[in-house]
Design brief:
about 80 residues; alpha+beta; Nuclear Transport Factor 2, Chain: A; 3-stranded antiparallel sheet; 1 helix; 3 strands; about 45% helix; coiled coil
Length: about 80
């Protein structure tokens, strides 16, 4: 299942589960609920650390690609 979300409206801990309410920007910049991500509290730290690590790796790749772009343009000139 794919869920598009561009915001978080609420985070709660209930019955040993972390519940993250996801939102989308709707008409007139209103927030529309997109769904709830539920993560076992015992795995929340591992999940978030894994996500943060993946985002850092992606950021490094994007920075490297941006640095290569000017070189490619110079080669075409």
């Amino acid at each position: 299942m794919h869920v598009f979300a561009d915001g978080i409206s609420k985070v709660t801990l209930s019955n040993g589960n972390l519940r993250i309410m996801l939102t989308q920007r709707g008409a007139d910049d209103s927030q529309v609920e997109a769904g709830t991500m539920i993560i076992p509290a015992s795995q929340a730290s591992n999940f978030l650390n894994g996500l943060a690590s993946s985002l850092r790796e992606l950021d490094e790749k994007l920075k490297a690609a941006r640095e290569e772009e000017p070189e490619e343009i110079e080669e075409l000139s």
